[in-house]
Design goal:
The protein is α/β, with parallel strands linked by helices and 482 residues long. Helices cover 24% and strands 23% of the residues. Helix 8 (355-371) links the parallel strand 19 (348-351) and strand 20 (375-382). Helix 2 packs across helix 5 and helix 7 packs across helix 8.
């Protein structure tokens, strides 16, 4: 006897058997929220996502009983606080033939935003043309925005809290903090203080067109004439404190050389240009006497003695450190580079200025010399140590962005393997001429670093400026810095 079984019946039977056989073997799954917990204030937001241990898609929805407390965007996962209460977000995963279904709830407390206040530090003492720092802090710890309510009297240097005195008067500064998802905006507070004229005392700074205040009036009756107008003019020149701006011999200082400029005295003492007005300070013969004094001085042109100036060109950061701790740090850094395989025949490096960085270059020299290797190129800031490596044959080329001493200047002039480069291209990581992606090792100094290639180069921990950033931001981006 022959039995015929259709394929469809056989398939249905197998599937039915399989389903019934697997029904009791489904694996449990769990749902995890990100963030695992949260709390927001009214108007605050948080983005909520959820995943399951099965890897299957999780659906999110808002508990319908909590719509007075929050709103929920299912497409973006954005939860926004509406009122004080408990917001609930439901998560569900329906399961499949392998995993059982799962549910979870994330409860998010919604609270009122916190109030914050702003207080000013001590008012700075600023004179016309001078600067000072305005300090204001918010109780929330958020950054405070400062603005001048009297910009013609005082104004902030762009993107800083440094205030510059413009003219004498009352300076008023406003401090604001707009708040965030946790804090309300702070009430605006103001601080007012005086910008005073700078008293001229023989050593003031009157740069940038600042008008210096003149000295107190004299009793002209007590000033006996010497009988020589030029001599009396010299005395007036000193008495009126012209020395502080124009120099002891009127040859110039913060203000121009005025030797033999007698024709301008009358206009100048009445407040011409950047000059203060001397009205009420002059004795009857002062203008004539000043003219006689200036006429008695022959104007001379002064040239620099370059032989005398050469030593002043040299940077103070081009000597290797003598500190045992820093020398040990330099040695360990060089050994680290060596053990990491970064030093090889034909590698490239940059060693910045500064005693420790220069010392690392010395240890590089010892390694290259011992193994008879040669670096393909070294990136400068050049100095006598790098020039010595080039001349000894330990480096094939110096690609120079700046020279720190006269040895570097001489080498760039005489050695065709020492060539100049522009930092505007070589330090631009996104440009075609950059070196950041070509240099194997960059040794630079910093005050703070971490393992994620973040560094603080500009300030000490006390907030004082250290120096410029140099090539740091580009070599960090290229991840080639030690």
């Amino acid at each position: 006897m022959t039995y015929k079984i259709s394929f469809s019946c056989l398939f249905m039977a197998i599937v039915a058997f399989g389903f019934s056989g697997m029904a009791s073997a489904k694996t449990n799954q769990t749902i995890a929220f990100s963030p695992a917990s949260a709390n927001i204030s009214v108007g605050g937001t948080v983005i909520v996502t959820a995943t399951s241990t099965s890897g299957l898609h999780v659906s999110l929805s808002q508990d319908s009983t909590t719509t007075n407390y929050c709103s929920f965007n299912r497409q973006t996962g954005l939860v926004t606080g509406k009122g004080v209460g408990m917001c609930k977000i439901n998560a569900s995963q329906g399961g499949n033939i392998t995993y059982a279904s799962a549910k979870a709830v994330l409860s998010i407390p919604v609270t009122q935003k916190l109030a914050q206040t702003i207080i000013f530090g001590a008012a700075p003492n600023i004179t016309v043309g001078g600067t000072g720092t305005v300090i204001a802090t918010a109780s929330s710890g958020l950054s405070v925005t400062l603005t001048s309510k009297s910009p013609t009297i005082c104004s902030f240097i762009t993107n800083t809290n440094t205030l510059k005195g413009q003219t004498a008067g009352t300076c008023t500064i406003a401090a604001d903090q707009v708040g965030d998802t946790k804090y309300l905006a702070a009430p605006e507070v103001t601080q007012s203080f005086s910008i005073s004229q700078q008293t001229s005392n023989g050593g003031g700074n009157g740069g940038g067109g600042t008008k210096l205040a003149v000295t107190a009036p004299f009793d002209c009756a007590t000033l006996a004439s010497s009988g020589n107008a030029a001599d009396d003019g010299r005395r007036a020149y000193i008495r009126l404190n012209c020395v502080s701006c124009h120099g002891q011999d009127a040859s110039g200082g913060m203000r121009p050389n005025i030797q033999d400029e007698s024709g301008d005295v009358g206009e100048a003492v009445n407040g011409e240009g950047a000059m203060p007005s001397y009205a009420g300070f002059l004795c009857p013969n002062d203008v004539v006497d000043l003219q006689a004094y200036l006429n008695s001085i022959s104007k001379t042109t002064k040239f620099l003695d370059w032989d005398d100036q050469l030593e002043k060109i040299v940077s103070g950061t081009t000597e290797i450190t003598k500190s045992p701790d820093r020398l040990l740090l330099a040695e360990w850094s060089a050994k680290f580079c060596d053990e990491a395989g970064l030093i090889y025949d034909g590698f490239s490096f940059q060693a910045g200025a500064g005693g420790t960085a220069l010392s690392i270059g010395i240890y590089f020299s010892e390694i290259l010399r011992e193994r008879k290797w040669k670096a393909r190129f070294a990136r400068g800031g050049s100095n006598k140590y790098l020039v010595k490596m080039l001349e000894e044959g330990l480096v094939e080329y110096i690609l120079d962005g700046q020279t720190f001493d006269l040895d570097g200047v001489r080498s760039m002039r005489d050695n065709p393997h020492h060539t100049w480069t522009s930092p505007f291209t070589s330090y631009n990581y996104h440009g075609k001429g950059n070196f950041s992606s070509m240099v194997d090792i960059v040794i630079l100094g910093a005050t703070e670093v971490d393992v994620n290639f973040n560094a603080n180069v500009v300030t000490h921990s006390d907030g004082y400026l250290l120096h410029g950033i140099g090539g740091w931001q580009n070599t960090l981006f290229g991840k080639c810095v030690i």
